[in-house]
User: Fold these one by one.
Assistant:
Number 1:
Amino acid sequence: MTKKKSSSVIIIGGGWSGLTAAIELLKNGHQVTLFESAKQLGGRARCVAFGKHRVDNGQHLLLGAYEKTLSTLNTCNVDLSSSLLRKQLRLLVIDRNKQTFNLKLGQLPAPLNILVAFLNLKGISLNARIKTCLFLIKLRFISFNLKQDTSVKILLRNQPNLVIERFWEPLCLAALNTSIEDSSANIFLNVLKDSFTTTPDASDLLIPKVDLASLFVHPAMQYIDQHGGNIALGKKIVKVETNNLSAMAIDVDGNNYNADHLILAGSPSSTLNLLNNSTLLEQTQKLLVQLEYEPICTIYLQYPASISLPEPMVGLSNCTGQWIFDRSFCNQNGLMAVVISASGDHMLLDKMTLAQIISDELTDIFGWPDAEKSLVIREKRATFKANVNIDQYRPDNATSSDRIWLCGDYTASRYPATLEAAVQSGLQCSHRIINSTY
Ligand SMILES: Cc1cc2nc3c(=O)[nH]c(=O)nc-3n(C[C@H](O)[C@H](O)[C@H](O)COP(=O)(O)OP(=O)(O)OC[C@H]3O[C@@H](n4cnc5c(N)ncnc54)[C@H](O)[C@@H]3O)c2cc1C
């Protein structure tokens, strides 16, 4: 049998998807050069400075179900136990009147764990608890899949309001970064299925104990370097071309780079910008223009080191802030990260006003003093909007050109725009190249 030749691959974009593709291709003996337009790698999951602290452009949360992400971190020799805080799912949601919703999964096998957790839930009528359990059983019966996609709001139409408000809505916003009115029920069900019906630890919350650069970017760079790959930072690619023999990337200074394959690993909007200059991949361009985007806003607030939360992550109901994380798990005592998913009036406020509103909410709920310092980060295009029937617009890794491939959290996947979708896309894309004839 003849051994397949090693291909040369140019990757445009050094987010989690592009880095994963680089690792997988190098692991399989291919040559990789990665161009990243920014001065740092990581893309939408990158590290920023806040005073003496290193924080992230947004507080990220992983799930036990993120199988491919965890195996990629393993490939890069990341010590998972010292880098990720693994907690059995416990959803503590507090509202401004200090009423709490506290869902705790026990040790039972899935999905019994979630059913028992709901039956034991305090502060919600028995009728509402039974209705929720019957709903979960019905979802299991239909294998967490609807023949015809609909919105999460319609999926939940017979659920008790209190359970929607305190559980389903915050969960949907956190997972899909899209309102329940607009979210695709099928994508939401995929997340529920993988988290609640497989193994008990699939629903575990994994909170990074280190910044995202230390978690993945630095180990990935080291892996790429040790396996002979090249990374060029601050190199924006402005045009791509192909001919019968190779594919070509052209940078902002007019330099040309040739390879057997090109992977476009930018966000959907930057990929569209890159393709706008050419008649290449018209079908891909038609799909990408259909995608809409949703923001994520993270407000870091510094309090005295003695201030802490009862759980690393607490939901906030009827507040502007949606989830609050106590960064003491990163040895940043007194530093809180408040996350607001999806669009809303908060995006119209100036940063100082928004930080003050959040600080006031936390004073009301927890009795804390005013925050000493704040940092507001708004990512306007944090994720694509996971609309009903969004699957129609998510392109495959393969394109109309045999030499150009797409990878990123937006390509066809069972998952919404997440680290796991990005990593899965990077793996899939590299395997398509490994198995291609060029
Ligand atoms: C604030 C925030 C919070 C989030 N929270 C979570 C969470 O809790 N859990 C979770 O799983 N996911 C979360 N996500 C989503 C997750 O971060 C993304 O899904 C993931 O990082 C996307 O990776 P990617 O590689 O597909 O794209 P990107 O990260 O966008 O990477 C694309 C890279 O390509 C580069 N690039 C683009 N164009 C060019 C060009 N022409 N030339 C060279 N380089 C180029 C860009 O600079 C960028 O570095 C969050 C995202 C944000 C923004």
Number 2:
Amino acid sequence: MPYQVLARKWRPQTLQDMVGQEPIRRILSNALEQHRIHHAYLFTGTRGVGKTTLARILAKCLNCETGITATPCGTCSTCQAIDAGKFLDLFEIDAASRTKVEDTRELLENVPYPPVQGRYKIYLIDEVHMLSNHSFNALLKTLEEPPQHVKFLLATTEPKRLPITILSRCLQFHLKPIPLELISDHLHYICKQEQVTADKTALNYLSKAANGSLRDAMSLLDQAIAYGQGSIKSDDIHAMLGTIAQQNLFPLMKALAAQDSNQVFHAIHLLAEHTPDFSNVLEELISLFHQIAVSQVITYQQKTDQQITELAALFKPEDVQLYYQIALLGRRDLAYTPSPQQGFEMTMLRMLALQPKQMVVQVETPTLTVAESPSWQEILPKLDLSGMAYALAANCTLEKIEDHKVILQLSANHQPMLNTKLKDRLRESLSNYFKQAMQLDIIITAAELYTPAKKQEQEQVERLTDATKAATQHPKIKQLIEMYDATIEVSLL
Ligand SMILES: Nc1ncnc2c1ncn2[C@@H]1O[C@H](COP(=O)(O)OP(=O)(O)OP(=O)(O)O)[C@@H](O)[C@H]1O
Ligand SMILES: [Mg+2]
Ligand SMILES: [Zn+2]
């Protein structure tokens, strides 16, 4: 007997045989048992999750000679004919290869005639999004008022490409990617049936690589059986997939945590000996940072991997966030690097270079040209004042200098600063400055004054604004903002 690929050999024959998709199976089972049957079903979902399989099973459920049922017998001539692809009333069309309107018309022409062999004529249109617009229109007419004896089963990976008019006439079921554990369990079951010895970690790696697609998982299993000549081991799987076992990354992680560049490169060279695909290594690294980050915040006691907990203790949470981000960007740019290993090395170098510390970049700020207000601004710095006395003076403006008398203005909201002691201090230093005994009058005014203090405050704001502007335009900072979605915090030294 010729070798049949596992995906076909193990195509589920009943709703119960299917892996995952539990809610859909339940809804369909109930509907079938209660004979509440819609005239058009649409199965959507990513590749290899069971759309076509489900449609074929439904064809049997509707036509099994034991009656409409959720559990077709699989032994009657109808069930067998459907399984063998020889059932006369099942029209299975691959829309991808028959997109033209003539094809669709020809197909739909015999819709009005009753089934020749079974209860229903079933039109299973796979990859239905590939039909042309004219074809959709032709189909739409039939979908509007199909005869009692006709059922449509449509399947597509891209429901968004279907006209809304079609979508609204179908009962839609969205099949989900199959969870990793279910895939792994299923592979385990298949291995047992096929008498293949397989280690559990190896099957986990295969399941992970399948990315939610059971068909991909089965194809990988086929390959793995051929590769390992009947037995499946982790090392073989890594060699086959170009992946790397997570624990092989631990020395690299430890070197990174220690910020030891030599050890980091030594670890990369050891990794390279396994000749992995470095984009997979980067992916594994990203997933490792994720696990570390999670283990750092999740406090409830779970059965976490001891090794991850140990690694997590070596990194600060904010470092993990940064490294994760760098690794993600590294993976994004890997296609542009001359070789994946080089790309990987550069990514690690970035991690070593960009430890999350505050980055101080000196930016030249433009010199300020603030219109000088006369006299007081010049006198004040020469007055030999400090502390509160200086603050008081800085909040005044000069009204007038008469013979032996200085008249200052102070705005009413600064009046609380004023007391005899400070006023005396100010008068003394004015006398020193003018080298003669001076009187001092301080007039309280309701007006808003442009005082040296006010001027200084304005200058501060302007310098900060200018510095922020200059920083935003600084090429190095610009790059950092783009790469790491950073924000700028400018402070004046
Ligand atoms: N939910 C499932 N349970 C069990 N086996 C499945 C399931 N989904 C897929 N398979 C396996 O994958 C094979 C392909 O499945 P199927 O043709 O139904 O996928 P599909 O969703 O129609 O994919 P595509 O979008 O590529 O047409 C099946 O023969 C079966 O071996
Ligand atoms: Mg399909
Ligand atoms: Zn049957």
